[in-house]
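Good morning,

Attaching, inline, the backbone tokens for the sequence recovery test we're adding to the shared suite. The designed sequence is right after.
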């Protein structure tokens, strides 16, 4: 009887002890405050858009940019805010969460407005924020932020329209079906002769990035289109496919793609590389490593430039390409929200596309915004908003 009473008493004491421990606040045990609630990170501020071109002053008697479209895209949280400026050029934002944000501000100038400003109905003119591309918004930020906007006539006539880099599904480690696609965004015939495609370099061993170089792209893989001036035209609205290997990759990997009809091929003549003799070869200017033209499967950056290969500037084991010569640049990352790890300078590409895993067969394609007379693709110099992920590559055409 005595043993039974003692055992019951022991159970009661143990239960009381457990309840006491569970009633403690975790912050009391750890000596720290509880994690802040989401609402504690919410801030309120306003952005005022100012025009450096004089257009708004002529039209409305003020340099404030009204009716501008603004996109704020979170770096870490994945959230975005689509906003428009009021008649005072102001955007008021309440309840936004502290983070770094990519900001894209655009104000399309309509033909009637350009008639008033210049006396002619000039088209394809817009105001954009060319300087500030990333805002860090938190409780320490100013409550009023001024954002300058400048005039841009048209956009880049030649742009990178698609990058396929990850490799096909269900084919082991097959990765030879990579390609980059170039698109003529203009309404005129252009020529690809001697245009340059370069992979932007970062030192993966030291983590050193060159995005803050004020003048130059750094590259260790530089190729140019063949031709002497007007040998390789690209028509308005035409896609040009540049394949790592211009073969039907389905023979080796059933879930891959046929690139045997590519427009150009990256053939590395100093390595055991595949050469399709009926496809014109890109000309290798500099690439010492690898047996083929190789772009990163999950992370990388490419530029399209009209810089002369004869004028390249050596820098250690790289070459330098001036920013002013860059027609277009696209960056992609395994996690496109991690913009603090960017490779490209934000003046060329403010964001990043991607988020594609190896060997999933997915591709990165620029967004179509018009298909009335000819295709027009989105080009805000911000891959976070310019590109979308498609489930299968679409070489030489829009998906």
């Amino acid at each position: 009887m005595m043993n039974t009473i003692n055992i019951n008493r022991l159970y009661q004491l143990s239960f009381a002890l457990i309840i006491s421990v569970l009633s403690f606040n975790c912050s009391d045990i750890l000596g720290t405050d509880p994690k802040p609630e989401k609402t504690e990170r919410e801030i309120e501020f306003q952005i005022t858009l100012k025009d450096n071109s004089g257009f708004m002053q002529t039209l409305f008697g003020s340099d404030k940019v009204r009716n501008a479209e603004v996109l704020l895209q979170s770096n870490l949280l994945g959230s975005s805010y689509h906003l428009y400026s009021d008649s005072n050029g102001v955007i008021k934002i309440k309840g936004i969460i502290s983070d770094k944000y990519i900001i894209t501000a655009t104000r399309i100038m309509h033909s009637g407005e350009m008639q008033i400003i210049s006396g002619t109905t000039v088209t394809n003119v817009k105001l954009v924020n060319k300087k500030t591309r990333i805002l860090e918004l938190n409780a320490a930020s100013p409550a009023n932020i001024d954002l300058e906007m400048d005039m841009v006539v048209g956009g880049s006539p030649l742009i990178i329209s698609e990058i396929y880099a990850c490799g096909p599904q269900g084919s082991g480690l097959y990765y030879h079906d990579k390609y980059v696609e170039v698109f003529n965004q203009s309404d005129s015939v252009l020529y690809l002769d001697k245009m340059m495609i370069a992979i932007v370099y970062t030192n993966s061993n030291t983590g050193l990035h060159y995005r803050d170089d004020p003048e130059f792209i750094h590259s260790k893989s530089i190729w140019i289109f063949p031709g002497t001036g007007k040998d390789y035209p690209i028509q308005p609205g035409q896609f040009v496919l540049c394949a790592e290997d211009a073969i039907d990759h389905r023979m080796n990997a059933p879930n891959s793609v046929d690139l045997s009809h590519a427009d150009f091929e990256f053939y590395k003549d100093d390595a055991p590389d595949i050469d399709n003799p009926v496809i014109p070869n890109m000309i290798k200017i500099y690439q010492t490593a690898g047996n083929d033209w190789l772009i990163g499967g999950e992370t990388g950056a490419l530029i399209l430039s009209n810089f002369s290969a004869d004028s390249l500037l050596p820098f250690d084991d790289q070459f330098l390409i001036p920013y002013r010569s860059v027609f277009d640049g696209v960056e992609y990352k395994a996690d496109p929200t991690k913009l603090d790890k960017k490779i490209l300078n934000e003046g060329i590409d403010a964001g990043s596309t991607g988020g594609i895993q190896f060997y999933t067969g997915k591709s990165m394609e620029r967004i179509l915004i018009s298909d009335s007379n000819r295709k027009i693709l989105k080009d805000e110099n911000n891959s976070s908003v310019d590109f979308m992920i498609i489930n299968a590559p679409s070489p030489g055409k829009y998906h």
